[in-house]
Amino acid sequence: EVQKLNQQLEEKNGEIEQMINQPPYEKEREILRLQKTLAEREKAQATSDVLCRSLTDETHQLQRKLASTAEMCQHLAKCLEEKQRKEKGNSDDQIPIKRSNEVLDNETSLQALICNLQDENRMLKQKVAHV
């Protein structure tokens, strides 16, 4: 193992000697290549930082939208429950057909709205998970 390490050390020393003995223009070319590589990596890092900030901002925005949508769904669910309780309380009374149809239409539209909000909520959760 020591011999192996000594051999690797000799190889590295040989590479160093080669670099030292290179003509100055090749050294400069290597320096320029390394500087170019460094500049590219710095640019990639800056781009990555900007994208991370952008995704973080979008994530926060989606989380806020998701929270407000969830609140709206809860509010609509409570309203629907109250209406259903009121309708059950009034079920003993005879409701005119016109009023019954209006209640059904309102209930249908509320349920459609709830379904739409649930779909939007699901989509927002997927976006947040994706981000």
Automatic annotation (TrEMBL):
<dbReference type="GO" id="GO:0005737">
    <property type="term" value="C:cytoplasm"/>
</dbReference>
<feature type="region of interest" description="Disordered">
    <location>
        <begin position="1"/>
        <end position="23"/>
    </location>
</feature>
<dbReference type="GO" id="GO:0034138">
    <property type="term" value="P:toll-like receptor 3 signaling pathway"/>
</dbReference>
<keyword id="KW-0175">Coiled coil</keyword>
<dbReference type="GO" id="GO:0034134">
    <property type="term" value="P:toll-like receptor 2 signaling pathway"/>
</dbReference>
<dbReference type="GO" id="GO:0006357">
    <property type="term" value="P:regulation of transcription by RNA polymerase II"/>
</dbReference>
<protein>
    <submittedName>
        <fullName>TNIP2 protein</fullName>
    </submittedName>
</protein>
<dbReference type="GO" id="GO:0071222">
    <property type="term" value="P:cellular response to lipopolysaccharide"/>
</dbReference>
<dbReference type="GO" id="GO:0043123">
    <property type="term" value="P:positive regulation of canonical NF-kappaB signal transduction"/>
</dbReference>
<feature type="compositionally biased region" description="Basic and acidic residues">
    <location>
        <begin position="1"/>
        <end position="15"/>
    </location>
</feature>
